[in-house]
Specification:
Layout: H1 12-21, H2 26-35, H3 45-72, H4 80-89, H5 96-108
InterPro entries: CBFA_NFYB_domain, Histone-fold, Transc_fact_NFYB/HAP3
Family: Belongs to the NFYB/HAP3 subunit family.
Domain Transcription factor CBF/NF-Y/archaeal histone: 24-87
Length: 111
């Protein structure tokens, strides 16, 4: 940007803080990982952090696809159907039925 354009480039420290806020909490990732492993299995910190980054990127990727559809349709809110549609478009077909059932149960529960 040219000098005096009125647009401020974020400093590297504010970018780092923003990026940290975009990452799924490590405690949540660890809890999910432990829930599917035998009790005696330990997970190295590097593995936890790798999965944390992977999960975060996956969520951002699917959300970006759902968001594009909303923008194209001049809508401001992403719905569960938008996310499921993004998963279909991205060929994550094995997840469509379970996600659809989960969304239905969630809505029926009134939450």
């Amino acid at each position: 940007m040219a000098e005096g354009s009125g647009v401020n480039k974020p400093s590297s420290s504010s970018t780092n803080i923003s990026r940290e806020l975009d990452v799924m909490p490590l405690a949540v990732v660890t809890r999910i990982m432990k829930s599917v492993l035998p009790k005696d299995v330990r997970i190295r910190d590097g593995a936890k952090k790798s999965v944390q980054q992977l999960v975060t990127e996956f969520i951002l990727y699917v959300t970006a696809h759902a968001s594009k559809k909303c923008v194209d349709e001049s809508r401001q809110k992403i719905t569960g159907e938008d996310l499921i549609g993004a998963m279909k478009a991205l060929k994550f077909d094995d997840y469509i039925e379970p996600l659809t059932l989960h969304l239905k149960k969630y809505r029926e529960s009134g939450k």
